[in-house]
Write a structure and sequence with these properties.
A: alpha/beta; Rossmann fold; four-stranded antiparallel sheet; B: mainly alpha; two-stranded antiparallel ribbon; 15 helices; binds adenosine-5'-diphosphate; binds magnesium ion
């Protein structure tokens, strides 16, 4: 299997807080890598670094064999890296369809016909098609999370960074998210997935990365990792599942 | 009739009235509408920056000065046809915009505003110390004497209608889509592929081009150009007034705002010195009581857009 993303000794701190510290790992083509860790472990910061929204103090990010450490955010998106935000950031004064179109037209570099078609396709996939003409401002949280995913998918990514889409969902809704994510993998999208819900993390990812204080605590097969001693210690008292 | 057909009918009637104006209206009325057209165009270009691109420019007068002086120098010193000189005034404004974009786009928000203002002031000082354009004494643009009022009026009308159409099409284009996204959340827009700099830069150049050309037509009407007036901040203050009372970030705002401004200016011209206080008071009241301006407030109340830009 070839390697789509390589993180090499990546570090970023905010003042005294080392949000990501000397972190290294690799992601293979077509895999789903789950990332867990307590609040403040640096998961969102890691995504911000990969997407290019913040720059690391040191370390390297390789995407498909190219060094993208200093590439601008919009360029990384056009190269195939898309992300969702843990706290949704919809374009509130635009309709759902317009929100998604931005992704297809700019991130996906598609013409007007192709972008329309792409939008309809991804809206169907995430179940937002019937609400395409609603203003994003009027969406409840759940639909805002769906919109995050839809916008990201519209850019036609090969690497998708998902930051807690399933938080606050009912069990059957989580099932639905799992289904969508597995189907994305079948479409050839590699996925990094941050989530707190243990059920989802046991069944979704091929491998699991556990972060704590910005560092790699454990890495490997989900079942083994979740049963390991260190992980139990870190999660002791944390609101698991 | 559907609202769309009413809209088209009204627009057609208005267009015919405006196109035939010199044949049936008084000279005074033509001169007023000429001013409304020019101010509307200039205000739309300021609105394109402030209302749609998040660029608060306090330096639009640099393009007004450059447009006016290009017209004067090219048509008088070099004997170029008048309207070619007007067009080249727009081109030279774009060149200036490209030149200053390197430092100016590194500045954000208030710094961008002040930066553009300083450049305009500096240009005013340069021109007032430049013998070629007769220092601060100014120039009479003699070739403009040959033009009739209605010729200038038609030039203004073409610019005015052209710029409304341009802005409307621009907002419905992909660039308009990106501008809306940037306005809502610039970081999120960049994360899904929008090149923010390029979008803003495009608008900046477009605004410079049209402002420069409009200034040419404006000085065909004024005939006399003088550096401290042409490069003065007073221009942007007027545009700000027009856009704010009309409705920031609406296509129709500058149209309504320009009409109100020109008419008010006619009545207030007797009270020199007071008129700025009155304009200032109106602007501040609008900001406090109806921050969306005349057009923005009406659109909100009636749920009706004069220039709809939604995608379905
Ligand atoms: N923009 C920021 N400014 C200052 N501190 C930040 C910023 N973003 C994150 N942090 C800090 O970095 C650490 C990691 O945060 P984050 O990446 O959001 O963790 P997680 O997503 O794993 O909960 C936290 O201590 C957080 O307070
Ligand atoms: Mg987080």
């Amino acid at each position: 299997m070839s390697c789509i993303l390589t993180i090499e000794k990546l570090s970023k701190s905010f003042g005294r807080v080392a949000a990501v510290h000397d972190l290294s790992f690799e992601v293979s083509q077509d895999e789903i890598l789950g990332i867990i860790g307590p609040n403040g472990a640096g998961k969102t910061t890691l995504f911000n670094l990969i997407a290019g929204e913040i720059k690391p103090e040191s370390g390297k990010i390789m995407f498909n064999g190219t060094d993208v450490t200093s590439a601008q955010t919009f360029r990384r998106c056009r190269m195939g890296i898309a992300r969702t935000y843990q706290i949704p950031r919809p374009f509130v004064n635009m309709t759902v369809l317009e929100n998604v179109l931005v992704g297809a037209v700019y991130g996906g570099g598609m013409g007007s016909k192709a972008s329309r078609k792409k939008c309809e396709e991804v809206l169907e996939k995430t179940g937002l098609f019937s609400k395409r003409n609603a203003f994003a401002e009027s969406l409840p949280l759940l639909d805002r999370k769906r919109l995050e995913l839809t916008k990201a998918l519209a850019t036609g990514p090969t690497l998708l960074l998902i930051d807690e889409v399933a938080g606050g969902l009912t069990e059957s809704e989580v099932e639905e998210v799992l289904k969508i994510i597995h189907s994305l993998r079948r479409d050839g999208i590699t996925i990094l997935w941050v989530e707190h819900i243990m059920m989802a993390m046991k069944r979704g990812p091929d491998r699991l990365l556990v972060m704590d204080f910005g560092e790699k605590l454990a890495y490997g097969n989900p079942d083994e990792v979740l049963d390991s001693e260190e992980v139990h210690k870190v999660y002791l008292g944390d609101d698991e599942d | 009739m559907s609202s769309n057909r009413i809209r088209i009918l009204l627009a057609a009637l208005l267009l015919i009235a405006l196109a035939t104006l010199p044949f049936w209206a008084t000279r005074y009325m033509v001169s007023i509408l000429l001013l409304i057209c020019l101010y509307m165009t200039l205000a739309s270009m300021w609105n394109l920056l402030a209302g749609y691109s998040g660029l608060i420019s306090l330096g639009q007068q640099m393009f007004i000065g450059i447009g006016g002086y290009s017209l004067a120098v090219l048509s008088m010193y070099h004997g170029l046809p008048i309207f070619l000189s007007v067009f080249l005034g727009g081109v030279i404004s774009v060149l200036l915009a490209v030149l200053i974009s390197l430092p100016i786009f590194r500045m954000k928000g208030v710094y961008f505003a002040i930066g553009t203002w300083i450049i305009a002031e500096a240009l005013g000082i340069c021109f007032s110390n430049w013998g070629y354009v007769r220092y601060g004494m100014g120039l009479f643009i003699q070739p403009a004497y040959r033009l009739s009022m209605s010729t200038i009026y038609y030039a203004a009308l073409v610019l005015c209608i052209g710029s409304i159409a341009l802005i409307y099409l621009l907002l419905r284009s992909n660039l308009g889509l990106a501008l809306m996204a940037i306005r809502d959340d610039d970081r999120a827009s960049e994360a899904i592929g929008v090149n923010i700099f390029r979008c803003k830069f495009t608008c900046f150049l477009l605004s410079a081009f049209i402002t420069g050309m409009t200034a040419g037509v404006l000085y065909l009407n004024t005939i006399f150009i003088q550096p401290f007036e042409a490069f003065g901040i007073g221009w942007t203050v007027k545009l700000l007034f027009i856009v704010i009372i009309g409705g920031l970030g609406t296509v129709a705002g500058p149209i309504v705002g320009a009409a109100v401004f020109v008419v008010l200016q006619q009545y207030l011209s007797e009270y020199v010195g007071f008129n700025l206080i009155i304009f200032g008071t109106i602007t501040i009241s609008v900001i406090f009581f109806t921050p969306k301006g005349i057009v923005g407030t009406f659109q909100e109340k009636l749920g009706f857009e004069i220039f709809p830009i939604r995608r379905r």
